[in-house]
C-alpha cells in the first residue's frame, strides 16, 4: 500500500483531495510536531471524517488546556501542550522565551506550550483549530512577530511597530518619534540584537499602524504595502 506522510504545515482538504485524485487507495498520515519536542508528537491516518492531527505517539502526552492550564473536556477548544521524554530543555541563551514556552505541568513535569489551538475528539485524536498568536514561518524558521516588534519598540525613537511576513521575508513598519533618524538605521541595531532570521528584510516608517474595525492590526494592509500594493 502507498502511504503518504505529511508534516510541517496544516493539512487542508484541498491537499487530501489532490492526493486522492492521483492515488485513491493511498493511506494519508498527518503528522504534527516541532523542534522543541524533537519532531512529530501527534500522528494519524486520515479516515475521511474530517482532517485531524491524529493521536499522541508513544511516549508523548498531549494536553488541551485553558488559559489557567486546566484540562478541557472533549470537544472544547484550548491550547495544545506537549510533554514527554523528547522535550527540549529550552532555548539556548534565551531564558525569557524558555520560561514562556516551557512551563510546569500539574503532575510536576514540564510541558511545551505549542501556541496551537485544538480540541480533543471522543476517539482520542486531536483536531487543529488555528494559532493563538501571529506566528509566521519564514525560510523554514518559526518567527514570533511580537519578539521582533518588542526589539523595535525598545528603541527610544520608535513609538509603535508591526512586523508581517511576505513569503520568504519579514517586513517591519514603525511609527517614529519626531526628529528620529531614518527607519533603515534601526536594522543595524536589530542585527546585533536578534538572530539573523528575525531581522526584517525591509523597514518602513508610517504615520500609524492600520487597524481593522475590531481594533486588531490590519496585517493584510501591511503585507500589501510591503509588496508595493
Description:
This protein is an alpha+beta fold. The protein folds into 2 domains: 3-125, Luciferase, Domain 3 (Luciferase, domain 3, Roll); 136-226, ANL, C-terminal domain (GMP Synthetase, Chain A, domain 3). 19% of the residues lie in helices and 35% in strands. The chain contains 5 helices and 14 strands. The chain has helices at 13-22, 95-101, 145-153, 185-193, 219-226, and strands at 3-6, 27-34, 39-45, 55-56, 60-65, 78-84, 102-104, 110-120, 126-131, 136-138, 141-143, 158-166, 169-176, 202-205. The strands form 4 sheets. Strands 5, 6, 7, 8 and 9 form a 5-stranded antiparallel beta sheet that branches. It has a 4-stranded mixed beta sheet with strand order 1-2-3-4, with no helix packed on it. The N and C termini lie far apart (47 Å). The mean pLDDT is 86.
Number of domains: 2
On the 0-100 scale, what is the average pLDDT?
A: 86
Main sheet specs: 5 strands, antiparallel
CATH names the topology of the largest domain as Luciferase, domain 3
Instruction: Just name the CATH architecture of the largest domain.
Output: Roll
Rg on CA atoms, Å? 20 Å
> Total number of helical segments?
5
Shape: globular
Number of beta-strand segments: 14
Order of helices and strands, N to C? EHEEEEEHEEEEEHEEHEH
Low-confidence stretches: none
Amino acid at each position: 500500500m502507498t502511504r503518504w506522510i505529511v508534516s510541517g504545515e496544516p493539512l487542508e482538504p484541498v491537499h487530501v483531495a489532490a492526493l486522492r485524485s492521483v492515488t485513491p487507495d493511498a493511506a494519508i498520515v498527518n503528522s504534527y510536531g516541532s523542534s522543541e519536542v524533537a519532531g512529530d508528537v501527534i500522528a494519524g491516518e486520515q479516515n475521511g471524517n474530517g482532517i485531524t492531527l491524529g493521536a499522541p505517539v508513544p511516549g508523548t502526552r498531549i494536553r488541551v488546556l485553558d488559559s489557567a492550564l486546566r484540562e478541557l473536556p472533549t470537544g472544547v477548544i484550548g491550547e495544545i501542550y506537549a510533554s514527554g521524554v523528547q522535550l527540549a530543555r529550552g532555548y539556548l541563551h534565551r531564558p525569557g522565551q524558555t520560561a514562556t514556552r516551557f512551563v510546569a505541568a500539574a503532575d510536576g513535569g514540564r510541558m511545551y506550550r505549542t501556541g496551537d489551538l485544538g480540541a480533543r475528539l471522543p476517539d482520542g485524536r486531536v483536531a487543529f483549530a488555528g494559532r493563538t498568536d501571529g506566528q509566521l514561518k519564514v525560510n523554514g524558521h518559526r518567527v514570533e512577530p511580537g519578539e521582533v516588534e518588542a526589539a523595535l519598540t525598545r528603541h527610544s525613537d520608535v513609538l509603535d511597530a508591526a512586523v508581517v511576513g511576505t513569503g520568504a521575508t519579514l517586513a517591519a513598519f514603525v511609527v517614529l518619534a519626531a526628529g528620529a533618524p531614518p527607519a533603515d538605521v534601526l536594522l543595524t541595531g536589530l542585527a546585533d540584537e536578534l538572530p539573523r532570521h528575525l531581522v526584517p528584510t525591509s523597514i518602513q516608517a508610517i504615520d500609524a499602524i492600520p487597524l481593522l474595525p475590531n481594533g486588531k492590526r490590519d496585517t493584510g494592509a501591511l503585507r500589501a504595502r510591503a509588496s508595493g500594493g
